[in-house]
Amino acid sequence: MHEASRGLSRRAALKLAAAAGLAGIVTVHPGRRVFAAADQSLDLAVERTRITIDGETSGAISIGGSIPAPTLRWREGQEVVVHVTNRLDEATSVHWHGLLLQGVMDGAPGFNGYRPIGPGETYTYRFKLRQAGTYWYHSHSASQEQEGMYGAIVIEPAGRDPVRTDRDYVVLLSDHTPEAPESVLRKLKVSEGYYNNGRRTLVDFFRDARRDGLGAAMDDRLAWGEMRMDATDLADVTGYRFLVNGKGPKDNWTALCDPGERVRLRVVNGSAMSIFDVRIPGLSMTVVAADGQNVVPVKVDEFRIGVGETYDVVVMPTGDKPFTFFAEPIDRTGFARATLASREGMEGEIPERRPRAILTMEDMAMAHGGMDHGSMDHRTMDPGSMDHGSMPGMDHGAMQGMDHGAAARPERAVGWADAGTPPGAKALSYADLKSFSKARDLREPSHEIEIQLTGMMSRYIWTLNGRKFDEGAAIRVAYGDRIRIRFVNTTMMAHPMHLHGMFVELENGQTDRMPRKHVVLVPPGQVTTVQLTADEPGEWPLHCHLLYHMASGMMTRFIVEPRTASL
Amino acid sequence: MTKTSLRTAALAAGSVLLALSAVPSRVAAQEHGGPGDADQAEQFHEEPPILSTLLVDRLEHRWRDGENSIDWEVQGWIGGDTNKVRLNAEGSKPVEGGVEEAEFQLLYSRMTSEFWDVQAGIRHDVRPRPQTTYGVVGFEGVAPYFFDVTAQLFVSEDGDFSARLEAEYDLLITQKLVLQPVAEVNVSAQRVRELHVGPGFNDVELGLRLRYEVVREFAPYIGVNWERKLGETADIARDHGEDPSDLSFVTGVRFWF
Ligand SMILES: [Cu+2]
């Protein structure tokens, strides 16, 4: 574990940021391999290494000597110089996720003239920090991110931080597999259900038949069979160990804090494939930022975090006892765990595991809206109680008292959005997010772009508008335009859609305070809309942040074209 | 048509199809192109376009009243999402003795929809004698309710038409215990004396195998297999002193990599 990735007290963090701020840069060249004239710049080497998780060692790739990579603590307004040296025998790249910067510095190979860093080469990144908040960085080459190339970025605001806390920790969630990523993808391609060990069996069928009646259980199986789809298809890859700051559940990463202190946890989902439900039993969390951008504080008991998203929460542990930070992937194949305690070595209780959800026809709404699945009514939720059309993400709290009832809850969860949140508990919904500051651009979008999230699950082909990256046309918008993007998810999986270079504003019912995000988790069968001001010229990647979805084609080029003088 | 010219034609057709399969479907990429690096962006982010796999679906010992046998069925492919070259092989040999039946297929397979591939190519039967080469067209895929279906139409070098339909289903009893019913039926358009086949339905085969997936890639199994020759084909078998119906108990392994 690298020292810098541990939490720092607020004062120490400020000191560090101030020191780093002294790094003056004399020249700024947009080209590559520029000699850095700064005396204080950062060197990060990318190299093969081993990672030991809960006592088991496997191969990995590190940036800056550790997994996760060192937390970079910077300050808004500062000019940053990072030399990345590739000590692998393959090309690499480092992408600064969520940062506003010049295109060539974004680090996505093949975009904005950025070329991958060849073996033995050093690339110098140089950019000015135009924002504050929690972000992260990771490889954008092949599947190196899966092998450990990720780390957090914390940018202190230039002015006063509206969030006052005594402690400040990065909680970087990730998933690690001892398998080679290429082999994972090959298995998914050859046999899509390879990793699904929670498929519905004959044993399940008889159990369902006993509970729902034979006819209903049969109708349900026939409906899924007719579509040739699998109601248990929540996550593509299993066999993962789930990590907090590179530590497994047994290693138990611990955040030290004293009772009564206000602790800021900067939760980053740096996973390749895992969407988590996060909670700290016994503590409520106040969400203060989403994707690095401050939001009006909202108190929750749990939240779902998509791949690539970040949430900053403030918690206040009371009493001299340990609290367990618990993050379960939505397919419930394990958990990530950390502890908040006043001393190392303390351990809180591991909470009971939540049930794995079974998908419903509701989750298939876009793909099969016209089909008659009347027989399914007993297991779908009352659509009237939730506004799916305009509400991206659902309020888990509001789903209590649905027909599946509290009694059935411990046994099973119904529908993608059902996290198994206990009655009375509040789960964060996208609708709860309200930007802390007013939007700067209040224009109505002048045009709308529809992006269908598509795929052929059974063949493990993932596409946008039915086309793989190599087949699809780029999306072009004019510089300065205000546009709306409609993400129409026609698949039965959730896709965390990530746009580089800009923030999008999530249409979640807010008017002048729509939350600004760089990743939007689009639920299966739903439509999510965002607005954006195309004020960053360049050719930006727009892709699903599930690594193997991107690698299977779920990516496109989002081009913000300079406005040519109207002649 | 002569035997040789038909064989040549079949071979030529096969080579053309294979050549076609090698043409990358990346024309679209060039249309919107962009400056140098942009062309490479896809290859920086996407999976290697060519994958391959080999599945030994059945490698089994059959116990029956008469002579016990070893039977096999193997499928492999190499290619990308849309275009693949497939190799199928199946056959049978008595435990003691030489190979009685052995068939190989080399097919070009093209994805036409999420669940279906259209295939064309060549089949060559080493046994039974005389060796026969066929042209093959067919399709393979997943029908609603998860039935794996293969349907093939054959034209032999002598111009004889025949067809085969296969369907199988995986019924999960638990995550690792899978019951697999299989059905296959063969039809011939005409009598082919050398191959002991009559016109119409030649035979039907029903199998039921229970496998245990130790890991996904390796599963031993047990089962039963029942074959019945039909119509004139059955009569020909009887004339040769064979029992047109054949029940066997099987034990074997399924593995892939
Ligand atoms: Cu995706």
Written overview of the protein:
The complex is a heterodimer of chains A (567) and B (257). Chain A is mainly beta. Chain A has seven helices and 33 strands. In chain A, the strands form seven sheets. In chain A, strands 1, 10, 11, 13, 15, 16 and 18 form a seven-stranded mixed sheet that branches. A six-stranded mixed sheet of chain A has the order 24-23-26-31-28-29, with no helix packed on it. Chain A has a five-stranded mixed sheet with strand order 12-20-19-14-17, with no helix packed on it. Chain A is globular, with a radius of gyration of 23 Å. Mean pLDDT of chain A is 86; it is low at 1-8, 13-39 and 369-409. By secondary structure, chain B is α+β, with helices and mostly antiparallel strands. Chain B is built from four helices and 13 strands. Chain B has a twelve-stranded antiparallel beta barrel with strand order 1-2-3-4-5-6-7-8-10-11-12-13. Chain B is globular and about 65 Å long. Residues 13-36 of chain B have low confidence and may be disordered. Chains A and B meet through helix 2, helix 4 and strand 32 of A and helix 2, helix 3 and strand 9 of B. The structure holds copper (II) ion. Copper (II) ion binds at residues 462, 495, 544, 546, 549, 554 of chain A. Copper (II) ion (CU) binds at residues 462, 495, 544, 546, 549, 554 of chain A.
